[in-house]
Amino acid sequence: MKPTDSTSDADTGQPTVVSDGPEDTFSFETSGSTVEVTWSDRLQDFYEEFIYKPGLVAWDDRRTRIGAVIMFVYLLMGIPGAWFYPAPSTNQVKRGLGPFETLDAPLGSTGSGEDVLGMVIHATPEMLIMVVSGGIFATSVAVLIGTVAGYKGGAVDRALTSFSDVAMSIPGLPLVMVLAVVFRPRDPVLIGVLLTINYWAGLGRSIRSQVLTLREESYVEAARTMGVSTPRILLKDVIPNLMPFVLVNFANAARYVVFASVGLYYLGVLPSSVDNWGIQLENAYSQEGALVGGDALYQLIAPMIAIMGIALGLILLAQGLDRVFNPRVRTRLAGESEATAENEDRETNTEVNI
Amino acid sequence: MVEYGDRNGESLDRRRFLQLAGAASTVTVAGCANLVSNGNDDNESPRHVSHVNQVPADIQWNSSNPANTPQITNRVLFDPFVKYNFSTGKFIPYAISEWNFGGDTFELTVRDGLTWSNGDDVTASDIATQLRIGLYTGEPYADFTESIKTPDDSTVKLQFDSTVNEQIVTFQILADRFVHQKESEFGTYLETLQNDEQKGLKQLGDFAYQEPIASGPFEHDSVGQEQLRLTLRDDHPDAEKINFDEYVFEYRESNQQAQQALQNGAIDSVFSLFVQTDILKNFPKKVTQIQTPSNWGYGLYPNHSDPHLGDRAVRQAIQYVINRAQVRDNVSPDSKTAPEYPVGIASDNQTEWLGDAVDDFDTYGVDSAKTKQATTVLEEAGYQKQNGTWVDSDGKTVELPIMVPSDWSDWNTATDTVVDQLTQFGFQATKETRSYDAMLGNVFPNGNFVIVAAGWLYGAPQGSFPYFSLYHQLVKNNDSVTYNYPAADSSRGGNRADVTVPARSGSGTMTVNPAERLSELAGSTDESTVNEITIEQAWVTNQDLPMLPVLEKVEQTFITGGEEWDIPKPDAEVAQVQWANTWLPRQGEMQYTGN
């Protein structure tokens, strides 16, 4: 039926809008020819719904802008910075230089002649990898378990919820410390995963409750009645609506990874043969005597600023993104933009969805 | 009515406040040399607060039990046999008031009037008991001691099976030994040892001696997680020279905590504490630093069963690459020295003992990384550099993880530098940290390491006599590290094998058995033989590098003087002992003067 239609369209050379309309409504489930169209359409939709509009809402918030700029600085430090700036090593510059004394070591040097700024910069790439891997791991496990549990309900829900309850009840830091000592991980991706090994549990629970409301939505019900498979419903209908919430929690998980990794490196639980702000703090404290009058306070302050900066960036981002989650703010802002002028009804839908 | 009630409440509050404040002040002054109530309100007594780096409640005073043996508290509780003075280079008689060497005999006389804290006299048989136990627990004098007798109540006589070297035997029997194993407590263990050695060693090794009977001027009073309290014994012969009633040890875990406690006056003394120059200059003036030789310091023990480190070429290359002067300057140039020659002799004594032969020895570069020599020696042994990293003939990368105690800050700085030096040369070096307890319990005895940082010399005062450090490097190291050196004793993973090194003359090789040669040295009274064997074995250590020497430290002891304590000047002869804060009170040289 479809092929004939399209040929006839091609033959006449006229886009038969009128005939297309009833066709579509008539054969709703046969989507043979619409596939090509909907792919880009859907991408467009997806972009508008889940990137452009939330982005617009988020960007309107000053916190997001500042947070994004801060994170951009860390990206600069982590990628081109670590590439171009010389790696720290002992005796690369004069020992015990103070900050702002020479351009060779703008933030000064340690008692062993390591460039403090170099140490800060070269700790960034691994930290970013850890943050991203930990964030992705925690949020994806949480989304997977939360959505499946919330959507399926029944025995699956009970099993998954009990599982996350168990994971939640294991004390996080001691567990991570034991695992770190046993595995002595060196790969930042693995460290990120290890640090968030049970961080996902709480997030999973809240996602589950979000899904519990989402699954009662009419469009989800419609999809269900049409016989769309569960994974498809979860992927196409449920998870996209959770994205803002997930993003906010991604930023929080990332912040947790920063603090946990710095703490564990400081305590010497994680292998110390890499560059990390935690190790830098530990060196400043124990080897340079920064707190016992060793005139090495700047060596403590430099990594502290780096840690505070990234944490601040992530918090601001998370708070900014949080607004995306707020339907009132979102509608007002997105409604004003010209991009949304033509599909108002869809807009209302989104609002209801959330 | 209301007013009355208020006032009543107020006075109550004030009274309660005073009570609380009273309780609180007792707690706060517990940290410093101060007057504390000793139960009787109008009679207060001064105390000396020192530092201990072990949890006091865990300490047990049986030196034959390796767990939680004391590092400093025993030096107050128990009297030393003698004390070695670094300034004069002589032993000062103490609990052993006299000793006589007779070629194949050694006679000790117990100090008159010395008693245990339970009131018993310290007798010759107490001393004999502990020396006899030493025969079973592997004390070095066991190798040549035939019998230990007590001709009378105050004399102990050791009979050797042949003549021995006087200096060695004197150091072995007198140095670093304490009157600590009372016959009534340890006699049963000795009996078991004599009947069934294995059973006896097991029993003795398991015995935790937690309520020690003291022979020193202070006795055990009470102990907790944070503090060990010792009280003055009036019946000690030197009690009258001490004018304070309590000697308290407070626990501080890390160097930084101890430094902080010294700075703010929470503790009065620390027996040994690494303090780098920058921190030292900010210390209060009243804190006096006493420096003594340590004959000990940061070295690297290669695991000789590792495929790469078992290869002499790799050990030599590492020694060539390490720039010792740079390591010293990074750590603390004031309290560390870089040994001129990597040999089994302490830095100060190297030229004296090696004499003219010193020119033959390789320095491996004290203040430079001799990468050219390192490259040559590696390439000759079949190693090559691939993509900037050294690999062996099978293409396997030379990996050098260096394990170091996490709580020793100076050693961590040193290791960071060494790792960078080795990495720049093309070795895949990394630093690994473990707590010192974990190292003692697991890493050292089981040889679970590729390279481990530990002392390359025997330690003071014995370390100033080369025999001890050579024996430490080649045969039986002091830290019980299983480093699998073939020439070492079986307890250190070796089989007392021969070693072949290039001859010192420059052509050909020489094969010697270090264990045999050193026992020959210990039995020799002939000076030229002693010199000859010393140089020969030093040559073996220099060429074969059973351990890699990096730094030697200067011991830093701290005592607070000022208006509270009357102490001698840091360079005074009487203070040149280890450790001054436990010795000076016995000499009446550390008096409480505070008010």
Automatic annotation (TrEMBL), chain A:
All copies of domain ABC transmembrane type-1, residue ranges: 128-318
Composition bias type Polar residues, residue spans: 1-17
PROSITE patterns: ABC_TM1
Top-rank lineage group of the source organism: Archaea
Cross-referenced InterPro entries: MetI-like, MetI-like_sf
PANTHER family assigned: OLIGO/DIPEPTIDE TRANSPORT, PERMEASE PROTEIN (DPPC-2), OLIGO_DIPEPTIDE TRANSPORT, PERMEASE PROTEIN (DPPC-2)
Protein name: ABC transporter permease
Keywords: Membrane, Transmembrane, Transmembrane helix, Transport
Lipid bilayer topology: Multi-pass membrane protein
Compartment(s) where it occurs, according to its Swiss-Prot or TrEMBL record: Cell membrane; Membrane
A cellular-component GO term for this protein: plasma membrane
Claim: Transport is one of the keywords in the record: yes
Residue stretches spanning the membrane: 66-85, 127-151, 163-183, 242-267, 296-318
Organism name: Halocatena pleomorpha
Keyword presence, Iron-sulfur: no
Region annotation Disordered: where it falls in the sequence: 1-25
Lineage of the organism: Archaea, Methanobacteriati, Methanobacteriota, Stenosarchaea group, Halobacteria
TrEMBL record, chain B:
PANTHER family reported in the protein's UniProt record: OLIGOPEPTIDE-BINDING PROTEIN APPA, PERIPLASMIC BINDING COMPONENT OF ABC TRANSPORTER
SUPFAM superfamilies, A to Z: Periplasmic binding protein-like II
GO MF annotation terms: peptide transmembrane transporter activity
Keywords, comma-separated and alphabetical: Signal, Transport
Keyword DNA repair: no
Region called Disordered, residue ranges: 487-510
Residue ranges of every copy of the Solute-binding protein family domain listed in the record: 98-473
Gene Ontology BP terms: peptide transport
InterPro entries linked: SBP_5, SBP_5_dom
tRNA processing listed as a keyword: no
Any one Pfam family match given in the protein's UniProt record, by short name: SBP_bac_5
Family of this protein: Belongs to the bacterial solute-binding protein 5 family.
UniProt name for this protein: ABC transporter substrate-binding protein
